[in-house]
Amino acid sequence: MTDSFNPVISRRLMLRHIAVAAGAVASLPLLARPALARADAAPASGTAAKSALQYQDHPKGTSACANCANYIPGKDPKADGRCIIVAGDISPKGWCLAYAGNG
C-alpha cells in the first residue's frame, strides 16, 4: 500500500520554492512604495470651476472656506489655500455651494 499523502520532494524542487519565496518577500517593499507615495502626497486641488459653484471671495453669514471640510489651508491663516472640489486659489474668507461645515 502506498501513502499518497507523503509525496517525495526533491532537493532541487525545495530550493526552487525557497528561491521563489525569497524573491517574493524581497519584492514586497517595492510593491508598497507606490501606495506610500500616494499617501504622502497632498490632496490634489479640485477640478470644478469657481463659477460653476458660485464661488465668492467673501463669506456667506458664518460659513467661510476656512471652516469648510473641503478647504486645505495655505502657509499661514490669512494666505490663500486650496479646495478639494474647487479649482484655483481659495480665500479662507470665501464661500461656494460646495461648502461643508466641519461640525
UniProtKB/TrEMBL annotation:
PROSITE patterns: HIPIP, TAT. Coiled coil: none annotated. GO terms for molecular function: 4 iron, 4 sulfur cluster binding; electron transfer activity; metal ion binding. Gene3D superfamilies: High potential iron-sulphur protein. Residues 36-103 form the High potential iron-sulfur proteins family profile domain. Residues 1-32 form the signal peptide. GO terms for biological process: aerobic electron transport chain. Transmembrane segments: none annotated. Keywords: 4Fe-4S, Electron transport, Iron, Iron-sulfur, Metal-binding, Signal, Transport. The keyword Iron applies. Belongs to the high-potential iron-sulfur protein (HiPIP) family. Homodimer. This is High-potential iron-sulfur protein.
